[in-house]
Design a protein that fits this description.
- This protein has about 325 residues and is of the alpha/beta class.
- It folds into 2 domains: about 180 residues, 3-Layer(aba) Sandwich (D-Maltodextrin-Binding Protein, domain 2); about 140 residues, Periplasmic binding protein-like II (D-Maltodextrin-Binding Protein, domain 2, 3-Layer(aba) Sandwich).
- The chain is about 35% helix and about 15% strand.
- The strands form 2 sheets. The protein has a 6-stranded mixed beta sheet with strand order 8-7-6-9-5-10, with helices on one face.
- The protein is globular, with a radius of gyration of 20 Å.
- The two termini are about 25 Å apart.
- The relative contact order is 0.19.
């Protein structure tokens, strides 16, 4: 029996083989829609637009904790980054280290988004800066935010202001109304509205002079390579067609294998041309991204702990609550 499912995903090299049809899940015809992640998650949480989709891990944990049973998680992890290393600050704000963020006005597209969750977790546990130490300004409006879609309320002791409708994080950073911003986003979609190129603006700088070095330091110390997005499938489809769960997981694993092979081929091409040192090429041959619960348990359980610590979830969500039972040993 064939199953036809609509799938919504952001653009990602590890999922391109799904989009372009090189990889097809057994017994499933996918109808793909490429939607930017910010908009995609809002549409899924608010309107349940797609049968299968990428999903914010933080929002999924919050939805599950509040009893939203529309979705079953798939341990397919499409994006990872060291988000705290990407904080941008105004040069004249005299913020030279994370501790200097205390008492500052900090922009964030969405307070509950996974990038912000990981950033606050790193600031608290690595640098002693807690969420209540900063004053947050959130760009996404109540009608078009993940926050409104899951009924999130501001945690006790935390200050969250709304960026006015005629402004954005970008404009407020340039005017000096904000001192710093977490996970700055410029993209034309239904929920984000910043347009200024802060990364190359002379008045703006990263809080870490070498963000890549900070990511390496953090990973070596903690063993954490933060997961940002996972995948979900409609719960009624999972109940009616339980075989679809592992078939989808296997398809995404095949897509990742193709992406890894292409990455190695590119590394070898640049090595042969003398454009890449041998040690760099060897590093590129070793995949850091793995799907599955078992390979990512530390990262997933840390995210669940941060969610509870930061008041996003009333209790720590277990991985058994998040993911399909058939995937827990994968």
């Amino acid at each position: 029996m064939n199953l036809q499912l609509s799938i919504g995903m952001a653009s990602n090299p590890r999922t391109w083989p799904i989009f372009d049809g090189r990889v097809k899940p057994d017994g499933i015809d996918l109808i793909p829609s490429q939607v930017f992640a910010s908009e995609l998650f809002w549409r899924q949480l608010k309107f349940a637009d797609f049968d299968v989709s990428e999903m914010s891990m933080s929002s999924l944990m919050m939805a599950v904790a509040q009893g939203d049973d529309r979705w079953v998680g798939l341990p397919v992890f499409t994006t990872r980054r060291f988000f705290h290393a990407e904080i941008l600050v105004r040069r004249d704000a005299k913020i030279e280290k994370p501790a200097d963020l205390k008492g500052r006005r900090v922009g964030v597209p969405e307070y509950q988004q996974t990038a912000a969750l990981w950033t606050r977790g790193a600031l608290q546990h690595e640098f002693g800066v807690e969420p209540r130490d900063m004053e947050f300004w959130m760009e996404r409006t109540p009608s078009h935010s993940h926050r409104s879609a899951v009924g999130f309320e501001t945690p006790p002791g935390v200050t969250i202001h709304q960026v006015p409708a005629d402004k954005s994080i970008g404009s407020m950073m340039l005017s000096g109304e904000l001192d710093a911003t977490i996970h700055y986003i410029v993209n034309s979609n239904l929920v984000d509205r910043s347009t200024a190129d802060l990364w190359h603006h002379p008045e703006i700088k990263p809080i870490f002079p070498d963000p890549a070095a900070e990511g390496v330091r953090y990973f070596r110390k903690t063993g954490l390579f933060p997961i940002n997005h996972g995948m979900v499938i409609r719960a009624e489809i999972a109940r009616q067609h339980p075989w679809a769960i592992l078939n989808l997981l296997k398809a995404f694993e095949r897509a990742s294998d193709i992406a890894d092979r292409e990455r190695v081929e590119q590394a070898q091409y640049h090595l042969d041309a003398g454009l890449l040192p041998a040690e760099a090429a060897q590093s590129l041959r070793s995949p850091l991204l793995r799907h599955g619960v078992k390979a990512n348990r530390l990262v997933l359980e840390t995210a669940a702990r941060y969610s509870h610590e930061q008041g996003l979830t009333p209790q720590r969500v277990s991985l058994e609550q998040l993911f399909a039972a058939s995937t827990l040993e994968q």
